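Repro:
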Amino acid sequence: SVRKYGNRVRVTAQLINSENGYHKWSETFDRDLKDIFEVQDEIANSIVDQLKKTINIHKPEKHLVNVPTENIEAYNFYLKGLFYWNKWAPEFVLKAVKCFEDAIKISPDFALAYSRLSACYTYFGAVGYMPTETAYPKAKEYALKSYELDSNSIFAHISLGMIKYFNDWDWVGAEKCFLKVFEKNPNSAETHQYYAMLLTTLGYHKKALKEAELAHQIDPLNPPISYILSFVYFNNNQTEQAIAQQQKTIELDPDFGDSQNSMAWMYLRSNQYDKAIEVFNKILNNPNNILQAKAGLAYAYAKLGQKDRAFEFLQKAENELLKSPT
């Protein structure tokens, strides 16, 4: 657990046996906030020292925690931006961009912040929030800047992989980037997630499922990973599992991306029209999902044979589309 008070931070770390819940080790670190990276390294080393008592492992001589920036204010902006980024919704990703830009203003050589900026603009282009001819060049610019500053960073390779995936449609190149990350860190849940996306795009749905499940196993409380796992289940015609997983995504974060809209279409796929209509009506007031909701309602009522209501919502969807700047 972490508690901040004034300019100090108190971190309580515990090492617990997952099989029986037995506390093997616990320690509290009360430190000045400006030394947070030293605290992280101290905690990591303390855990390794405890593990060495029961497991034959080698403790590396170098620091266990890489310091992404020496400026704690820039790092705080980065963490705030990461919070917004992980919601995968335009209004939140815009806030993430502002946070990452603020981090870079303070720390111009902050490679990790450039990687995340690249991800934000890739997202904008992929979901149609921004024209691809505007979004993708900026995404590529920031990815290359991140790589220039730190070519060993896995996030720089992830950013480059996503550019090759979404902008260049260079499937082989994207896969090489992701596999390069696995050489450095085979437990990168985020990379397994993106690799699953690439594989399911190419139609390798079974392989994609293995990657998505592995990502979820590594990081089970991550909404984007849960969302992608649901999507991959859906592509594997495992609709019930897809709906159940999407419900878990919404439990993790009710505001996450288009998870509600996605679940409604999964209900349609399984002929659960009443449940789909219920969800679509719930998200009608969300400006980021209103077009999808109206189109979904038109489809649902058409499937139910209610032509008048179907045409009503189809007209509403068309009007919404005409209002769209893109």
